[in-house]
Amino acid sequence: MERRFPTVALVGRAHDPRVTDSLLALAEHLRRGGREVICETGPLAELFGGLAGAVPATVLARRADLVVAVGGDGTMLYAAQLVLGGDTPLLGINRGRLGFLTDISPPEMIARLDEVLAGQYQEDVRALLTARLERAGREPLTCDALNDVVVQKHATGRMIEFDTRIDGVYVNTHGGDGLVVATSTGSTAYALSCGGPIIHPRLDALVIAPISPHTLSDRPIVVGRHSAIEVRLLERSETRAEVTFDGNLLGELDHGDRLVLGAAERSVTLLHPHGHDFFRILRSKLHWGRSARNPDEPC
Questions:
Q1: What pLDDT is stored for residue 43 in this prediction?
Q2: Domains of the chain
Q3: Model's pTM, two decimal places?
Q4: Which of 168, 153, 145 is nearest to 258 (CA)?
Q5: Is 65 a residue of the active site?
Q6: If you average pLDDT over residues 38-55, what whole number do you get?
Q7: Which member of 73, 103, 177, 246 is catalytic?
């Protein structure tokens, strides 16, 4: 069934002039087209003034039929957290750097937005990763992530040591700065900088990538999305670790705690204009298809 978008929520960083220029232009265009525009209360609402209605972030996605995120992939990840648990789709406009998730450029944003509003779009359902941090004597901490969950050393220069298990089977004992567990979507983020592979978004897989491993043989591996991954910190003096999801802090991982990761029940729906091409984005962002003889060859 074709979606309708009478109410559009705009999300972005209010302190970035490049972002705010685009947000204001989008708000004015949407209002002229008879759409209701909303944003979360705070600096962004002050920027829009009478152009947009202000609602709390906790209900923004429920009030909107479409969320448009303007910025980089960090803004898109923030918007993804807003729509969790609902059916509101996301559309990304890139005002950041790489922008694997925000695939519409500013010069074409009005035309592409109009295409989407007219029903000319492709739906792209992205699987999420869920994490449960089980702590002795305390309530567990849980989260769902679009990109990745990261275990990393905290407040110390010493490396951390930890065990991993997959589906209850011991895999390895790691030493280094930490571990990235990424979805197919997140394979082009932190996991990529750790030497992990690029996974097509439609592939049901997870990447497990060590961060600065102490042993060169400790390499990234790919497992099925429904695998149960367990991480336990080994007891060593003066070592601490923390767990983050999509750049947000979940909590500290202490000795005796257990971090369990696997497939989330929820998902996030991205919208792309017709003609969206994942490999074209890779060529553009990673400068593929350019030879040393022809560095200006178009991607």
A1: 94
A2: 7-120+274-286 (3.40.50.10330), 128-266 (2.60.200.30)
A3: 0.93
A4: 168
A5: no
A6: 95
A7: 73
